[in-house]
Amino acid sequence: MDLGLDGRAALVAAAGSGIGLAVARALAAEGADVSICGRDPDKLARARDEIDACGKGRVLATSIDLRDEEAAAGWVRHTAEEFGALHIVVSNSGGVPFGPVESFTVAQYREAVDGNLLPHVSLALAAAPYLTAAGWGRIVMITSESVRQPHPGSGLSSVARLGVLGFAKGLVHAFGAAGVTVNVLAPGFHRTPILDVQYGSRVEERLAEVARDIPLGRIGRAEDLGALVCFLAAEQAGYVTGSVVVVDGGNSRGIG
Prior knowledge:
The protein is of the alpha/beta class and about 260 residues long. It has a single domain, classed as 3-Layer(aba) Sandwich (Rossmann fold). Helix content is about 45%, strand content about 15%. The protein contains ten helices and seven strands. Helix 1 runs parallel beside helix 2.
């Protein structure tokens, strides 16, 4: 299936590894020009080479901290100038410490909001003029299944990322007439480097325990999310907007 992404200009935040890298690789494989950012220059350089090998489009890599809204806006502007347009914005952020809601201080909640809510806001607002000028655009905000099913061990994530939904719903109305869709992707457990950090030497044992409680019986692959982002960015998904797509192997049991 031709997704109509050949020659489109995309930016993917926090793409030095994990989900962001998988998304950037998938978009590049569809022929898009891809601009990535991250905080670690060495990791970003390796990611750039991986993405460049996936497709014929151009690849840009910029080392920035998305908590700096001026730097985030500058990255968006640089991407649009280098590619001549901007069509696809995939906002993404790093993880937060695990623990129940009562175990964190107000300062830690403030830091979580700065790192996991506001980057989505700053990137979308900075990209708005370019997307509306193009008359065609896709915004995909990557959050967590915790926005649909809060988990006792994901207190910071459940609080900080929930605001993304309210922001996205507002953008649906603001951007609709310009042909720009806005959707939220809410992944559950996927095998990424952050899980190795979280579980340490017991990672394989712990992931097997988690998988037993997931209806599909396995941990997700980051590549699965890359493919889904490509579809949400595709011509074929032009009437899909305002959706929160949970990708967790059936782990969220609530209705609605």
